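Sample pair:
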Amino acid sequence: MALTEREYYTWDKQGEFGHIGVRKVTVIEKDGREISKTYHRHVIDPDSDLTNEAPEVQAIAKAAWTPEVVTAYKAMIEV
């Protein structure tokens, strides 16, 4: 009997300011057959600290968060 765990991420860009909705999926398999799947969701804001995010999420954020997007987001939250 072999138990394995694997994780993968899905994401989507939300709203005009480039928020990114992240979904981490954790799958537990027993002898190659899925026996459990859990989800963790969170949203990251433009210009957030990305050090705890998965590399693929960091890459999406860096591409989506242009200086113009970050400036617009900061101006919006200061209101």
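The mean pLDDT is 92.
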